[in-house]
Protein 1
Amino acid sequence: MAVSLAALVVTAFWVMLPAYVPNNAAVLAGGGRPIDGGRTWDGRRILGDGKTWRGTAAGTLAGMVLAVVLNVLEPSVSGLVGIDLPTFPLAAGFGLALGAMLGDIGASFLKRRSGRERGAAFPGLDQLDFVVGALVFAFVAAPAWFTATFTLPVLVVVLVMTPILHVVTNVGAYLLGLKNEPW
Ligand code: CTP
Ligand code: K
Ligand code: MG
């Protein structure tokens, strides 16, 4: 039981890596022209200055490159941890990475509609927006891979583990001075 839970956690973390990296890469690469071009809707920004073309492109690319790197490392890592970890078809890496970015952008849209300024916290949404986006887009982009990879136990572990990891990495990025807010 203990062994299989550890295997589930390792598998869940591995398959979600191409979705975890994009938002962090966007923080490092962000800046430049906002996606909404500064436009407003009902007096509020459509998305805000925190969602840029450069950050979105860099984040998506980073997630896809990571998926390719993980494919190369898979035999060694699988041998090391004693689990047959999945590899990532290009469509799967693309779906996970772009989906993570679009989930986060969708959340900013909802934050602006509910009157929250750029950087405001939206507990719950902040921790899960990119997971939901990544899962939906991975399913659409690579359905056979998705259903074979995201078994129900893996999905449950992803949904429990991701918010915890999100809090830890964002507090870390804040303490390192990379982010303006610790969420
Ligand atoms: N970022 C970006 N493009 C994205 C996502 C993030 O350029 N698609 C960069 C921005 O510099 C952003 C930073 O990463 O400020 C932190 O991301 P996030 O916390 O998602 O944005 P916020 O600035 O907090 O804005 P929002 O309230 O809309 O989430
Ligand atoms: K966010
Ligand atoms: Mg933020």
Protein 2
Amino acid sequence: MTQDTIVSSWNDFDPLRHVIVGRADHCCVPPSEPAVDDKVPVDSKMKGMWGPRPLETVEAANEQLDGFAKLLESRGIRVDRPTPIQWNQAVSTPDFRTFSMFGCMPPRDVLLTVGNEILSAAMSFRCRYFEYLAYWPLMNQYFREDPNFRWEQAPRPRLTDESYRPNYGMGKHAMTIEERLEKVAAKEFVTTEVEPMFDAADVMRMGKDLFVQHGLTTNRTAMEWMQRHFPNHRVHAVNFPGDPYPIHIDATFVPLRPGLCINNPHRKMPEEQRKIFAKNDWEIVDAAMPAHDNPPPLCYSSTWLSMNCLVLDHKTVCVEASEVHQMEQMDKLGMEVIPVPLRDAYAFGGGIHCCTADVYREGTCEDYFP
Ligand code: ABU
């Protein structure tokens, strides 16, 4: 690593030195579109509503995000923030049109850091097509500061109607949870395989190995693209059959340090996929139950944001301050726990891990699964 190195991160647990924390400014609830519709449960109050989020919720979320940024800075971690744009604008390409964007929370969905590269994801939500623009000033700055930084963009998806299964889970007779789970078990999701589509938050980085969740936001074609793009890595497809809305791996399967992961007890990794961990002496522990029965209002995510934590180093972890069971479990697992109030930001796209994106962690690319 040279003195000029700004960007380097190979996993989610080595000592964190530089991170991006999202902002809630101008965030919107997006209008109906195929990929979004499938993420919003049929009985959700969000069904059918769209437009700018209420100002008081934006202010409350920003207060907590700013507080989190300050806390990280107080521990000597450099924190950068995105530059929000006016998200309440229509998006139009030759292939589709939608009437508003989403926001610059959460960065983890958009930016995938692998070593000295930050890759903007090929996201399947039309409303998130231009979200990378909020990070463009930072990417441009890193490009100028760090001669080895690889500023990358995955192929821009076309997101025509061909990219989605028509009326997946929708229509007059919306799918029941049982029917959804059957589709998940059959690995049949709203996205088709006509082009690579993925969210960066579906990728769990563990040195030479990238574990990628196949679900609503990431397809198999994206995994094939990733394997060719990262030829020195091993890309593993993982599925979590107990999750009726499989989106993003970081509230399902979370490494805390080399040799230890927590796994959502409702979304267990199948035996076949666990073998690689067992063979290499990794322990997989069931995560603690969430402290809340329901997510906050206007929230896309599940209550399992409880386990969506940010590991600062092998012994220190940030957990949302109201998640008492998860904090207690982390403590028992030998971690120093830093409680972070962030529940007011959940509705904007996620929790403690989601609202960040790695820029620099110490350490190198290890082979944990030889
Ligand atoms: N962005 C993480 C959401 C995961 C979940 O809803 O469980």
